[in-house]
Write a structure and sequence with these properties.
The chain has eight helices and eleven strands. The protein has 246 residues and is of the alpha/beta class. Strand 3, helix 2 and strand 4 form a beta-alpha-beta unit.
């Protein structure tokens, strides 16, 4: 694999999936476990056209491509530096024929794409409302974590617009916002179909929720067994390691 030109503080990380790698900058925003879990939780189709909203480093499209969960992938990212770095990761993996990074605003998808253009939409959006939580010295981290440039309703509205009838929206978020998430999904004709909570330890409350909703579907939701990240010894559980392909 040909090494790209890296800028200051950048590094190449192995995704441990089909030989794929990704460029990251630890002084900006690096992907976490939530992105890995979402890429595994999402049920792909070999012929699917996939959009990742707020793609950041481009990790979700790359992981889904590596796992064969679609045929065509687009990552939409508003931050120029992140979009440029993600584009170089696409080139690094030689998947330009089926993956692309588009610099743009989630709130402007109606001007960028036709209604119902995608089969699957994914998103690992900012979790925290703009007025809440601690700020990080890095502006890119703030934008990734806080609803500064886009809020939950705008992400869900964009997903609904982009999806064709029967298409699925897959998102990872915080459990304390689950009532709001479900209410907004229903408002935008996205019916929750699968929910999975994620606990850091068996005796700790969930700190993540994975949710799939289907455009225009009937009401029926399956709650999957809770995923426990670490066992009593602090080691990753077998279930969690499966998500990492180990």
């Amino acid at each position: 694999m040909e090494n790209p030109v890296l800028t200051e503080n950048e590094r190449i990380d192995d995704l441990d999936c089909n030989g794929f790698c990704i460029i990251q900058n630890p002084s900006c925003f690096c992907f976490g476990m939530d992105a890995v879990l979402l890429s595994n939780f999402t049920v792909g189709k070999p012929s699917a056209k996939v959009m990742d909203l707020g793609t950041g480093t481009g990790v979700i499209p790359l992981l889904m491509k590596a796992k064969g969960k679609g045929a065509d992938f687009t990552g939409l990212e508003i931050q120029h530096d992140m979009a440029e770095m993600a584009s170089r990761s696409i080139k690094l993996n030689h998947v330009e024929d089926s993956c692309r990074i588009v610099e743009g605003d989630i709130r402007n998808v109606r001007e960028m794409y036709e209604h119902g253009s995608f089969d699957i939409v994914t998103s690992n959006p900012p979790y925290i409302s703009e007025s809440s939580g601690l700020n990080n010295p890095s502006s890119s981290v703030n934008i990734a974590r806080h609803e500064i440039l886009v809020n939950l309703e705008e992400v869900i509205a964009a997903a609904s617009y982009l999806l064709n009838s029967g298409g699925s929206f897959n998102m990872v978020h915080k459990p304390f916002r689950l009532p709001e998430i479900i209410e907004l999904m229903k408002r935008y004709k996205l019916e929750p179909k699968r929910i999975q909570l994620v606990q850091p330890f068996v005796d700790k409350e969930p700190n993540m929720v994975l949710i799939e909703a289907v455009k225009g579907a009937g009401a029926f939701c399956k709650v999957l067994p809770t995923l426990i990240v670490r066992d009593e010894d602090g080691q990753y559980t077998k279930e969690l390691l499966k998500y990492y392909g180990k």
